[in-house]
Please model this.
Amino acid sequence: MTFSYQAPDRWSPLPEEAFAAITPTGTQAGTRVLGGLAGPLDPTHSFAATIMIVATTIPDDQDDAVVLADSARLIRQDIGGFIMLEDMAWPATPSGAFLRTGIYIEGTVPITMCQWAWIHRAQGGQRHLITATATATTDQFPFVADDIVTIVPTIEVAL
Model:
């Protein structure tokens, strides 16, 4: 499983060691972090903007629409205090993606999150839910939003 992307120079790949914090013990079976990017650092909060790409195998008996709806529900369920601002069909690449945006507080730091979720069909027919989740401090978000919406459409997944 791999992914590729195009990003401005101020973004760099995250090392694999960083993925353990994102996929802790107890993570859903069949879920794998494909990679991530770190963007500019918000010096006020020592928090870098990030984009993480995750793939989750979809069982044959689950419908694509249900999987996508459940992925939105899990955001609200798993991130304490998360307020979803929108959950909408994304009109551009990745094709068939949904965009979820929202805000939450991590400790004392306000975070803005955008997640694109779509179904990827691998060779052989296996389906995967792919999520590209971007986070930034709410203060920093206006300065990285253009980068994020430029990077996400360039993401290509090979499973």
Summary: The chain has one domain: 39-138+147-158.
